[in-house]
């Protein structure tokens, strides 16, 4: 159950990271509240996941999910550049996440 919790924690990390953009420096109350809720959910789920997973693996996967998801949504939602190099490096992070899952007995 730890891996699904960790993945969900990563999804909430994407949510709070994107929420930071919408909150305009935490100056808009509704997006700021959503950002805070997503941050709390992400941390609680991460804390639960590390009860059964090594902290180094869990943290790397959690931040990796957040990085891949946030960078991808930045391209889609905020017209950030989708260069070949950028997409390649995002893919490398994704390969690292999958690799950590398999070498950590998560399959």
Task: Provide key terms for this protein.
mainly alpha, 80% helix, 4 helices, 107 residues, Quaternary ammonium compound-resistance protein SugE
Could you estimate the helical fraction of the residues in percent?
A: over 70%
| Rg, alpha carbons | 15 Å
Largest sheet: none
Secondary-structure element pattern, one letter each: HHHH
Number of distinct helices: 4
Termini Cα gap: 12 Å
How much of the sequence lies in strands comes to under 5%
* Helical/strand content category: mainly alpha
Total strands: 0
The geometry reads as flat
- Mean pLDDT across all residues, rounded? 95
Q: Name the poorly predicted regions.
A: none
List the domain count as a whole number: 1
Subcellular location: Cell membrane
GO molecular function: transmembrane transporter activity
Protein name: Quaternary ammonium compound-resistance protein SugE
Organism: Halopenitus persicus
Would you kindly provide a written description of the structure presented here, covering whatever features stand out?
The chain has 107 residues and is mainly α. It has 4 helices and no strands. The protein has one domain. Helix 1 runs parallel beside helix 3 and helix 3 packs antiparallel against helix 4. The radius of gyration is 15 Å and the shape is flat. The N and C termini lie close together (12 Å).
Q: Topology of this structure?
A:
Layout: H1 2-22, H2 29-49, H3 55-78, H4 84-103
Write a compact overview of the structure shown.
The chain is mainly α and 107 residues long. It is built from four helices and no strands.
């Amino acid at each position: 159950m730890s891996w699904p919790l960790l993945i969900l924690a990563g999804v909430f990390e994407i949510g709070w990271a994107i929420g930071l953009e919408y909150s305009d420096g935490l100056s808009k109350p509704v997006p700021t509240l959503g950002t805070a809720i997503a941050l709390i959910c992400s941390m609680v789920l991460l804390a639960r996941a590390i009860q059964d997973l090594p902290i180094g693996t869990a943290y790397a996967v959690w931040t990796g999910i957040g990085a891949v998801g946030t960078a991808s949504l930045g391209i889609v939602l905020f017209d950030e550049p989708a260069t070949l190099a950028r997409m390649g490096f995002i893919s490398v992070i994704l390969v690292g996440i999958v690799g950590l899952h398999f070498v950590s007995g998560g399959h």
